[in-house]
Amino acid sequence: MPHAATLTLAGTHVADRIRTALPDAIRSASADIVTLEPASAFEAMRFLRDDEELDGKFLVQMCSVDMITHIDLVYHFASLAQNHIFEVKVPADHEHPEVPSISPLWSGAILQEREIYDLMGVKFPGHPELTRLFLWESFPGHPLRKDFMSMPGGRKSGLSQFPKQVAGETGQEFRPAAPGTGE
Amino acid sequence: MPIKSEPVEVNIGPQHPSTHGVFRMVAKIDGERIVDVKMIVGYLHRSMEKLAEERTFTQNIPFTDRMDYLAAMSGNLGYCLSVEKLAGVEVPERAQYLRVIFAELQRVASHCMATGAFINDCGAWQTPVMYAFRDREKVLDLFEMTCGARLTTNYMRIGGVAFDIPDEFLPALDRLINDDLPFRFEEYDQLLVGNEIIMMRARDVGMVSPEMAINASLSGPLLRSAGIAWDIRKADPYCVYDRMQFDIPVGYNGDAYDRMCIRIEEMKQSLRIIRQAVHDLPGGPHKTDVPLAIRPPAGEAYSRVESPKGELGFYVVSDGGPAPYRWHVRAPSLINLSVLREMTIGKSIADAIVTLGSIDINVGELDR
């Protein structure tokens, strides 16, 4: 029976379910998130797609986050039949990020993996056509990395000085100046 | 004796009226039939996800207009919902109803554009798209009345909406949804839905099967045309959609004609929702007091809305600072194109154009 509103499955519940088939696939599990071991991530995802209880047949979205020490790949899976959603993360090395491609399992991942490769530089072995999606092939670097400087000669963001200059001490009392005061 | 033919590459776009923006498609054809399609995108890439990391949460709202510029309100709404989820901001009732009214008006405007442009792609040059524009203009007039902008509205705020509606808004909305548009939609039914020429042109073109649709993460009218009644407004209600009565139109054949019919029916359902929302519209504040430089606690949130193109999701990560640490947009226009290749191989170029028109992409959202 599908839920009236989408139910978010607890990470620990998803992890327990995956452990029944693949005992070593889980690195950690919290209330919201399951973190998989990269080495067995592909098998674990095949399991959570085909499993009757998890039923993650619908890949809602995938994206990447640069956590400085490593790069997290974030996947959201949903079951349209049972109307639930859960989140899975796969950590990748920061210098040479490589995560197995899930496009053999979900064709919706093909373009999203190309986007992540383009903007974050994560390689996906097993992808049918891993080329840059938005930027041109000779573009230097991967813009969404935190260590990517803006284009050569570009300027740094003003937000690094944000709290002191614009927002006062706490950053909470910033209001636009009254019109006509010249501020 | 069979005639020998060699594959020829045909370049469609990036500057072509049928590609709905700067979208480029390289089709390899053998005789009349397409054997391979390659899409080349990125001409409108503005790196919004990177830019957003250097701006405050409130400063990022205008970016969401400029993604899907035909459905700016839906983009605003999806983004504000994600930040509110992250920061735990309560939104007043009146703002929630106003958000529903504007999101549904935006759906009408976007679907008008999609239907008109689709008929344009089918070969009925200019007249139908002008009919659709005429109706869309009236919706945009209401946006202009409320927030001063027609296209890039920047209307929603974290914790509510920017302005309350002016006094003349509700009478004008009443005229629009009770007199003008229902009459127009009847006209659409007569001119388009029952039109034999369009049926012959768009039936069995751009077919999607339910298995293919789920495997490729399709959403919006493209998923529903395959017969799957999946609408975020029903499945995962946000704002006050759980109090509204409306139906999800579903196709059964998964072709371009079904998608056109679904869009026309969805516009009628949108009017139904707006009527209920206007009837129940409560008084009170239109916005909670949220600091402009809001600092949500460290964490992450994913929230999604049903935009006219499909499931528009925002994944926001905060490190406790005034700007998002990471901001990812699940763009339906990009993901819906995953099936373009399967849909067009073996068909003719003219069918590929009709297929692309029926997917209803928006390049601003595709490239971001």
Tell me what the structure shows.
The complex is a heterodimer of chains A (183) and B (368). With 183 residues, chain A is α/β, with parallel strands linked by helices. Chain A has helices at residues 11-21, 41-50, 109-120, 162-165, and strands spanning 7-8, 26-29, 33-36, 58-66, 70-79, 84-93. The longest helix of chain A has 12 residues, at 109-120. The radius of gyration of chain A is 21 Å and the shape is globular. Chain B is α+β, with helices and mostly antiparallel strands. Chain B has a single domain, classed as Orthogonal Bundle (Cytochrome-c3 Hydrogenase, chain B), CATH 1.10.645.10. Chain B is built from 15 helices and 8 strands. Chain B is globular, with a radius of gyration of 21 Å. The chains are: A alpha/beta (183), B alpha+beta (368). The A-B interface holds A 5-6, 57-61, 63, 65-66, 74, 76, 80, 83, 85, 87, 106-112, 115, 119, 132-136, 143-144, 148, 157-159, 162-163, 166-167, 171-176 and B 41-42, 45, 47, 49-50, 54-56, 212, 214-218, 228, 230, 235-237, 242, 291-293, 295, 302, 304, 311, 313, 315, 317, 322-323, 325-326, 328, 330, 334-335, 337-339, 367.
Structural class of chain B: alpha+beta
Q: What's the architecture of chain B in CATH terms?
A: Orthogonal Bundle
Q: How many β-strand stretches of chain A?
A: 6
Arithmetic mean pLDDT of chain A: 78
The number of helical runs of chain B is: 15
**CATH fold-level assignment of the domain at 7-110 in chain A:** Beta Polymerase, domain 2
Annotated CATH homologous superfamily of the domain at 7-110 in chain A:
NADH:ubiquinone oxidoreductase Nqo5 subunit
Helix content of chain A: 10-25%
Helix percent of chain B reads 40-55%
Give the CATH superfamily of chain B. Answer: Cytochrome-c3 Hydrogenase, chain B
Radius of gyration of chain B: 21 Å
For the record, what CATH class of chain B applies?
Mainly Alpha
Q: Largest interface, and how many residues on either side?
A: A-B, 46 and 43 residues
Q: Identify low-pLDDT runs of chain B.
A: none
Profile the largest sheet of chain A. 6 strands, mixed
CATH architecture of the domain at 7-110 in chain A: 2-Layer Sandwich
Tell me, briefly, the overall form of chain B: globular
Strand order, main sheet of chain B: write it out: 1-2-3
The strand count of chain B comes to 8
* Major sheet description of chain B: 3 strands, antiparallel
